[in-house]
Structures
1.
Amino acid sequence: MSVPLFIVDAFTRAPFAGNPAGVCLLQAWRSDSWMQALAAEMNLAETAFVVPDGSRFGLRWFTPAVEVPLCGHATLASAHVLFDTHRVPEDSTVGFLTASGELRARRAGGRIDMDFPSVPVAACDWPPALVAALGVTPVFVGRTVPPGPRGEVNYLCELQDPATVRALSPDFAQLRTLDGGVIVTARGTGPHAIVSRYFAPGVGIDEDPVTGSAHCALARYWAPLLGLHHFLAWQASARGGELELTLRGDRVQLAGHAVTVLSGECQV
């Protein structure tokens, strides 16, 4: 039996930018091995699997190598597909049941607003492999706390300026030895209060184009430093992507646009 399958560029207003995500609409969960194999076949940073669950939807995300507990861009892509295919009403709020709790998304004009948990960052000792891999000395190094549902962490490294973030060419073999992904960030210029990049070679993603989940930590880290609770962020990968962040205590609103670039059916 075939299943609907989409590729959606998330956190962008234009196709072939932002972060592409696979979205697979299932009527019931398939085996973990089947979903992992399809994600590997798609070979995108994440493929989302969506299953109706009463008035809400179950949602899981797989990289080509592993399942992950939280993914922002593939959640945005999933909500975009549900709205665009009229599986949910335009004026409704979509609830997703995930390993990171219930996430919610709603359409506001042309964009989609998502309600996610904010993630605290605590200063930590600098792992020698991290500094060696980046090739620069950070202003600050912290770790996301507490660890996620499966013990995963991210390192957050504030760098001196946005030019350093953009020019970074890390040693991915060194980064693979760390116990988590690496967010690098700096104060931004122009309309974007901050810039960032995200590296996660340990889960099969050398550099993620635009990472919603990383901004759950970035919003929590930068809001008090900027004196702002609402600001624009730019992820400075080769494809690039814009996020609008609003911190509300232990929750963060991630807002962005999405574009469907491919729709079809999986025949397997």
Note: The chain has two domains: 3-117+254-266, 121-251.
2.
Amino acid sequence: MELYLKEGIPTKSIHTLVIDEADRMMDLNFMPQLRKILEVIPTKRQNLLFSATFSPRVDKMAQEFLDFPLKIEVTPQATAAKMVKQHQIAVPNFRTKINLLSHWLSEDTWSRVIVFTRTREAADNIAKYLERTGMGPIRAIHANKGQNSRINAVREFADGSVRILVATDVASRGIDIEKVTQVINFDVPVVYDDYIHRIGRTGRAFNTGESYTMVSPADEYHMGKIESLIKEKVGRIKIPSGVTIENTSFEESQEMARAIDLQRRKENPEYQGAFHERKKKG
């Protein structure tokens, strides 16, 4: 639209409209922008819509923008990559996650690894910590990084000059790098489709791969939802004996308790919270 408003493109010559990453566009609420684009391009055109997942919202979008579409489905919806061996591991707190991450990355067999975090701040902090402990070279990519910085980081990761890429979900889609040996979910994604996209960064081009998801007490709810989505149980493993299990700080404990309360209220509107449960027991 910006190019059109600047008279930078002749819209009359457009014959094909391609809507890519439709599910992500729905997540980011780009429908108003799409409708504006449709107002200024020819009505006689070919429309192509691509989506990694086909939720009811995407289906509604397809009905609005496409006329008598032919639907081609490569794999069933919400299918985890079959070449990926999935693991989940219960981890009590952030500091133990860091210890576990360092333990894994000290292994030589972990040769090309993507670590996914929920926030940009976490991605930066983890990358800096791993650099300080001699795990580098490491790159972090997220939406606050410039495009050139992200492109260069992915290129270095692909050519092997960078072993570890720490990323938010900006990298969970559209990056096709062969021979990623492991994907680590430092945080469980709360947009459950993103789990499928994250672990799909490994096990590509007929190669096998592994995914490891660290599950805090507050993340068990989300992990259960993910297992329901992919229609399979993710294998549980224990924290290796060489990893130090830290005590959970009061602040982190309180934060997780609040998150668990919200989850329980979401499932049961009559749930009054852990405080009321303790009072009833007393």
Note: The mean pLDDT is 87.
3.
Amino acid sequence: MRGFLSSLRFVVNHPLNRNNPAEAVKRWVKWHIGSRLVPGPVAVNFVDDVQMLVSPGMTGATGNVYAGLHEFEDMAFVLHSLRPGDLFVDVGANVGSYTLLAGGAAKATCISIEPLPSTFAHLAKNVALNALHGKVTLKNLAVGKEDGVVRFTSGLDTENHVVSGEDQGRDFQEVPIERLDAILAGCAPRVIKIDVEGFEMNVVDGAQTTLSAGSLDAVLLELNGLGARYGFDEAEIHRRMVGFGFRPYSYTPSNRTLTLEDSPRELGNTLYIKNLDAVRERVATAPVFTVLNQQI
């Protein structure tokens, strides 16, 4: 019951639902009933003509069903900051929400990286559903500071992660791991999203060349305290990002403004921007996208 109430609060308070909470609750109820009557994942409308395959229990994906854009500010930033021909890198892509926004709606080129084979299969199906094989390169591996093999949890949906000392007795799979610099050798991403459930320091350590590049405008980086499971000080990650020339910003999709912040977000992703003037011009002049019959 507590989980349902938390989900319902998220739905009615989401920026895309506030003007019509009754319709949002209706959509939430319809999903909880209807999705259980259909065997297998359901293809749902996402942004513009992009669709996503969603099954009950997929936390991030069902958030998009309930609210259009689960992580509203961050997802809107990806839509507004990318153009056709740009490269977006999705580290920890899960089933592909950000990949579909970047490659499907914004028409950018993507490299999408997901380590867990079962989740990777869902990601691949979403890419195929939207005929994005020409735009999206899929990588079934983990990202870290060195190449090799790593143990990865399974069965935790969006919270699967590299096995740590806290995971004794938990089911795991061995997956390959590579440095982002090696994966992207010769590539110049415009925007990178990194969501690796506490393993961010290792990703940063293996991405020195990538993060130093002047062509990289922005990084969406999750810093929510989970680094402690690997002995990482997330304040050090922030100092590293500042050292690469990035500063933390918040994004307001309604008027497409960027606001400098004093520190990273305590929960969720922190938006780090390097080329502020270029990014401001991009978000201000980006096309309009349609989500839940609303324009953003």
Note: The two ends are 33 Å apart (CA to CA).
